[in-house]
Amino acid sequence: MSRGSRQLHGVVVWKKISQGWDSFRPLLNFKVGDGAAIRFWHDPWCGDVPLSILFQEMFNLARDREAKFKSCWREGVNGVVWDVQFVRNAQDKIGTGRFVELLELLYKVQPSNSAADKLVRKQSSRLEAIIGIYSVQRHLRGFRSFH
């Protein structure tokens, strides 16, 4: 196989993957590394539900609703320092309890500047796993015609 045909095959493979991405993406979560590829409010990185849904009242007051995860934390002397910014004093409007819940969730995560973010399969029930495998197999069937 010539180099040109291998490159073409690679394009076809990615084209097939992108065609099935909308149905495959819900089966994945992010594993946090440095946070450069993760949208803090919109991507599921702390469970199956994005923070924009879990903490909708805070999301509505967020200074940057499209913030990358990486922009919301930094390494401090004693570990991770979180810096989620809001347009006004959201704690007064929402209440301390919800902020404590958010911080408890955030401090369970250990981001690292030395690791990249990863997509991982969601932990799910056996039935959901079988459905997910079927879905992946169905999308990959189209690859056979390119070998």
Written description of the protein model:
It comes from Punica granatum. This is Reverse transcriptase zinc-binding domain-containing protein. The protein contains six helices and four strands, in the order αβααββααβα. By secondary structure, it is α+β, with helices and mostly antiparallel strands. The chain has two domains: 1-29 and 126-147, no CATH class; 33-116, no CATH class. The strands form two sheets. It has a two-stranded antiparallel ribbon. Helix 1 runs antiparallel to helix 6 (126-140). The radius of gyration is 20 Å and the shape is globular.
Which SSEs are present, and which pair or pack?
Elements: H1 3-24, E1 28-31, H2 51-54, H3 56-61, E2 73-76, E3 79-82, H4 90-94, H5 96-106, E4 118-121, H6 126-140
Antiparallel strand pairs: 1-4, 2-3
Helix pairs in contact: 1-6
Protein name: Reverse transcriptase zinc-binding domain-containing protein
Q: Return Rg in Å.
A: 20 Å
* Average of per-residue pLDDT values: 78
Strand content bin: 5-15%
The figure for the number of domains is 2
Low-confidence stretches: none
Q: Which strands sit side by side, in order, in the main sheet?
A: 1-4
Which series of helices and strands comes N to C?
A: HEHHEEHHEH
Would you count the extended β strands for me? 4
Major beta sheet summary: 2 strands, antiparallel
Number of helical stretches of at least 4 residues: 6
Keywords:
43% helix; two-stranded antiparallel sheet; alpha+beta
Concise overview:
The protein has 147 residues and is α+β, with helices and mostly antiparallel strands. The protein is 43% helix and 11% strand.
